[in-house]
Automatic annotation (TrEMBL):
The keyword Membrane does not apply. Belongs to the uroporphyrinogen decarboxylase family. Residues 16-25, 134-150 form the Uroporphyrinogen decarboxylase (URO-D) domain. This is Uroporphyrinogen decarboxylase.
Length: 341
């Protein structure tokens, strides 16, 4: 598998590429199959998860298939009352803000994510042998931010206030969410995924000192608990240029980089010794073929400089997810170009 080879310091047979949020939104076949189906309902339908996961692989010939799911799926499976509202994102019915709220959080039992593990089995039966299946989970901090804020936030005011003013309660909450994250990843790994990505999507809202004190120990426990499976562990967040070293040190084998930091600079910041993933700005895919070709050539040069300096490998990806209005043909052409450059 080219993606696994690049992640582990081997020479891939072709330059590997996959895109975050490739399974969904931009694809007409996705919109058709999701018509009148809620997001969470879809995430617990094994046949539907398999079909949506496979759609971009069939259409674009990507080297990775990302499991169709959502970072709040294990919270929903555990019994937390939440929904994913179109145009808004996850909305929590009863935000977690007190010691009693934290104490009442449920645990995740393996059977509660049986639909997800069943979907993985269906995907593996259909997936080409050369394409890696990537499982994923939300990191404890990002899950905590949704639970505390009650939904998406721009300031993370309540989250940071609990973190700083009530550190004991914060670590209790993070410990519970770390257990849920580990359980969800174990279920996926036991079902046969080839790699896992830990999404700490909103960690970029934190300072380096705050991240290292209040977040890193819990993410490190997640990474340590999945290390025994021997599969690549990818770590990614948005706006985390100043946190890249700390996010790598928690146990990442591959560090995801958004478009704000050049790949060779990112590799230098993390000290090499790991693979890098990224980092095309998603809007480039909407700017025409000439721009796509120019930007991909630049990113590939940066990735090659990073590898020459000691990075294990380069997996090409976006710096965040595919935008809903992206022309699928532009994605297909970009993949073809990446495989020839």
């Amino acid at each position: 598998m080219p993606l696994i080879a690049a992640a582990t310091g081997k020479t891939p047979s072709r330059r590997p590429v996959w895109f975050m949020r490739q399974a969904g939104r931009s694809l007409p076949e996705y919109r058709a199959i999701r018509a009148n189906r809620g997001m969470l309902e879809s995430c617990f339908d094994p046949a539907l998860v398999c079909e949506i996961t496979m759609q971009p692989v069939r259409r674009h010939d990507t080297d990775g298939a990302i499991l169709f799911s959502d970072i709040v799926v294990p919270l929903k499976a555990a019994g937390i009352d939440l929904d994913i509202v179109a145009g808004t994102g996850p909305v929590i019915a009863d935000p977690v803000r007190t010691a009693a709220d934290v104490a009442a959080l449920p645990r995740l039992e393996r059977g509660e994510v049986g639909a997800i593990t069943a979907a993985i089995g269906l995907i593996l039966d259909e997936l080409p042998d050369t394409t890696a299946l990537i499982g994923f989970a939300g990191a404890p901090f990002t899950l905590a931010s949704y639970l505390i804020e009650g939904g998406p936030s721009r300031t993370y005011q309540r989250t940071k206030t609990m973190m700083l003013a009530e550190p004991a309660l914060w670590h209790e909450l993070m410990g519970a969410l770390t257990d849920i994250t580990i359980g969800f990843l174990h279920a996926q790994l036991d079902a046969g995924v080839d790699a896992v990505q830990l999404f700490d999507s909103w960690a970029g809202a934190l300072s380096a000192a705050t991240y290292e004190t209040y977040v890193a120990p819990h993410s490190a426990r997640v990474m340590a608990e999945v290390a025994g499976y021997g599969v690549p562990r990818i770590h990614f967040g948005v706006g985390t240029g100043e946190l890249l070293a700390a996010m790598t040190e928690v146990g990442a084998d591959v560090i995801g980089v958004d478009w704000r930091v050049p790949l060779d600079v990112a590799a230098e910041r993390v000290g090499y010794g790991v693979a890098i993933q990224g980092n095309l700005d998603p809007t480039v895919l909407m700017a025409g073929h000439a721009v796509i070709e120019r930007e991909l050539a630049r990113i590939i040069r940066e990735g090659e400089r990073a590898v020459d300096a000691g990075a294990l490998g380069h997996i090409l990806n976006l710096g965040h997810g595919v935008l809903p209005d992206t022309d699928p043909e532009a994605i297909t052409r970009a993949v073809e170009l990446i495989h020839t450059l």
